[in-house]
Design goal:
Layout: H1 10-18, H2 24-52, H3 59-76
């Protein structure tokens, strides 16, 4: 586990505390959702860049890149 210290404006911290937003499970959930959202945005940004290329890759080339990326991510996961 990693401990994170946040510095927030007093009013924001007070409101967040009153709303129960500092609970570990909730904070974890919020971070996971933001991470997922950013990954999706990065993916679509990459697709936009690919579509802007003059020599667009074939569907097979794209599928191969996606498969390679997924394989790399699986290999990086701790066992």
């Amino acid at each position: 586990m990693t401990e994170v210290v946040l510095t927030l404006p007093e009013e924001v911290a007070k409101d967040a505390e009153e709303m129960g937003l500092f609970k570990p499970l909730l904070v974890t959930s919020m971070f996971k959702e933001e991470i997922r959202r950013r990954k999706v945005n990065r993916f679509f940004s990459m697709l936009d860049q690919l579509n802007a290329l003059p020599d667009k890759p074939t569907e097979e080339e794209i599928a191969a890149e996606i498969a390679a990326y997924r394989r790399e991510k699986r290999e990086q996961r701790p066992s």
